[in-house]
Amino acid sequence: MQRRILPQRRSCETFEISFGGLAKSHTITLGFYDDGVLGEVFINGGKSGEQVEAIARDGAVLLSLGTAVRGRAGQHQERDHAR
Hints:
Elements: E1 12-17, E2 26-32, E3 38-44, H1 51-82
Antiparallel strand pairs: 1-2, 2-3
């Protein structure tokens, strides 16, 4: 499997959410490949070092990794159908 590299300049979507009565909202940024496929997720919120901030950041990493695995699985399915 080849790693798919995100372009240096890419489209993204940023929005804020309020969650669980926390004092601060969280900012979520989604980064996309040129073909519109989701490639990365960032979640920022809370004060640096707070437990909720660390959980949100780690969750974003898991989501980003999940999009990479899902994208690779889709590539394999497309290749199998072409045979």
